[in-house]
Structures are given as C-alpha cells and as structure tokens.
Amino acid sequence: MSRYDPRGLTDLTPPWKQPSTVPELPAERDLVVEEASTGFCGAVIRCEKTAEGFTVTLEDRHGKLRVFPLVPRGFLVDGRPVTLVRPQPGGPSRPQGPSRTASGSVAVAGTKARVALPSRIYVEGRHDAELVERVWGDDLRIEGVVVEYLEGIDDLPAIVAEFGPEPGRRLGVLVDHLVPGSKESRIAAQVTGAHVLVVGHPFIDIWAAVKPAAVGIPAWPDVPRGEDWKTGVCARLGWPLDTPEAWRRIRGSVRSYKDLDPALLGRVEELIDFVTAP
Length: 278
Prior knowledge:
Layout: E1 3-4, E2 10-11, E3 24-26, E4 32-35, E5 41-50, E6 53-59, E7 65-69, E8 75-77, E9 80-85, E10 120-124, H1 126-143, E11 146-150, H2 156-163, E12 171-175, H3 183-191, E13 196-200, H4 212-215, H5 229-237, H6 243-253, H7 262-276
Parallel strand pairs: 3-9, 10-11, 10-12, 12-13
Antiparallel strand pairs: 1-2, 4-5, 4-8, 5-6, 6-7, 8-9
C-alpha cells in the first residue's frame, strides 16, 4: 500500500525500500538542501512560523528565493532524505553543510569523473575555455561532458558536419560577442538546429565577464574602437603590457561563479543543460 504525503502527493516507494527512520536536521542558515518534490536546491535563508505552520526559505546560486513548508522527508542532503525542523534558539551548532563546487553546485565527495558522453561543448577562445574549466570543470567531469577549444567561428560549419549531431549526441557552442546581423550570427544561424545550440556572451572580451571587484579594480576601462582591447586595458590599469601575464592575474582572481557576470553564467549553464538533457 502506498503512503500518503502531507503535501498532497502519493509516495509510491514500496515500504520495504523506505528508510525506517529519517534524520532530523535543524534548518539553520546557510545549510544547503534540495527540496524533494521540485529539485530546487539552495541555502537556508530563514525559518519562520506562518499561519499554516513552519516554512523555510531557500536561495539558489542565482539569488532566486523559494519558500517551502517543513514536512517530514521533505528535503535531501547529499541525496539522502532528511526532515528539516525549526532550529532551537541557542542550540548547538550543526556540522558544516555540504560544500559547493566553484559553479555553486553541491559537491559530491568521492565521485569519479564519468565516461565522456557523446555530446560536446565547444568554446571559442582559449581564455574563454580556460574560464569555463575553472568554474564548471568539476560539474562537467561528473556529467561526463568534454569541453573543446574552438579557434574561430569560421571553422564551425565544418566542425558540426564532422561531428554529426543527432539525438543523444548534441553539440553546444559558446562564441564571443555575438551581434545580430554580423557574419558570426549568420554562421550561428546556419548550424543551429534541434541538436546544435549556439549562444554568445555579450562581452567584447571574456576578461570583461569577470567582475571588476574580483580583480581589484573599480571597473573595466573604456578602450576606443580600433585599439586592441586587451593592450588598452593593461595600459589604462597600469599593468605591464603582457597580456598572457594579465590573463593569469585575472583568471587567478576567479574562485567561484560569484566572481563572474550573470550574463556569462546563464549562457554556460544553458549549454550544459542542453547537452546533458535526456
């Protein structure tokens, strides 16, 4: 016989497969949990009493907030069901919650990289590819997604033809500054299809996708059209005119997704979702 869930859902798990006990965990601030019925993952912001009972507010890595009731077996921690309860004022501190990867995902301890999927992500620009690896590398290895360097978008039609996208073998592409009506946008439209997704970030250069505060500068300087942007940035910031060294400095300042502009975060996660979709 199935069991009734107080949220109005029916739990179809056979009784012999259900844990006899589920641990209770105080819903303390910054605890990272996943809501079992929706898959929404976030950190606890607050726990409060309402007319319907106690609720918990979660914030995901994009800053989105959602409120959920505290119900038995309503949440997951490290993939295991837990019952969140109201924290006791002045009670003992809980063990530290699950750690996160640089992209903000819950880190899965001891998990080995999956065998590579047939699908791929191509990233135009060496610095772009290095930044994707730095922030999303752990997630991509767990998902089995290989990221490859695309030297220029002119090569994209030949790459797509050789790759042979099909169901279960998708291709996602991240390109530089994709402007409507440009040659790049025409090439992107030529190859985009059911199994190929091409997206572009809005930055003139991937350096500018790193938040200035992370690099320790007030803002990325304006560089006049016609002047090499990277060289102009170095000159205006008083850095040595050595772009490889400047990039190492910028890349080293990125420790997590919080150091990147949301416009880049959205494009990369869109590609990851696309190539890992069933």
